[in-house]
Amino acid sequence: MGNLDNLGDLTLRYVDTRAKRPRWRLNGAFNLNPRLKAGFEYNLAAGEWTPTANWIALIEKDGLPGLSFGTSSDRIFTPPGYQAYFATLQKSFDGFGAYAGISYSTYEQRLLYPMGISTELAPGWSTLLMLDGRKTHLLVTRSGARASLTVMWVGMRHPGISTSWSF
């Protein structure tokens, strides 16, 4: 999550698909305080702007999980114009982390149950296997001090790439 050492993050993503909305995405997030981010998502091919926000309500400590709440556009491959609202529990363990949550999809008008597990492969390298409530995705990330590069297998079918910078 954000900190006040930087103003925020900028992420650009490409997914190899004919679907317009998930193909190109630009995200900007601004750190309002160490536990609150607010920003935007712009799906370039679909011309869709969406607000994003994330608030860390509880920081993981003393063996208890962290808890966050947020909003963003609905899941990847849903039509433009839909928002998701979510609560997520996350916990770190020796060598890996896990999260589980509950998300309200305005597209499906129902609750979904996203979850995932991540592991550090080597210093600066990590992987994330996630279920967004409907589809499974695999991500491998190379992280640096202020930038990262992620190779994605979206829906276990579509290759993609994402890069992120802290500013």
What topology emerges from the helices and strands here?
Elements (H helix, E strand, L loop, with lengths): L7 E8 L4 H4 E10 L2 E8 L4 E11 L7 E8 L9 E11 L2 E10 L4 E3 L2 E8 L2 E7 L4 E8 L3 E8 L3 E9 L1
Antiparallel strand pairs: 1-2, 1-13, 2-3, 3-4, 4-5, 5-6, 6-7, 7-8, 7-9, 9-10, 10-11, 11-12, 12-13
Protein architecture, described:
This protein has 167 residues and is mainly beta. It has a single domain (8-166), classed as monomeric porin ompg (Porin, Beta Barrel), CATH 2.40.160.40. Helices cover 2% and strands 65% of the residues. The chain has a 12-stranded antiparallel β-barrel with strand order 1-2-3-4-5-6-7-9-10-11-12-13. Strand 12 and strand 13 (158-166) form a beta hairpin. The longest helix has 4 residues, at 20-23. The chain starts with 7 loop residues before the first strand and ends with a strand.
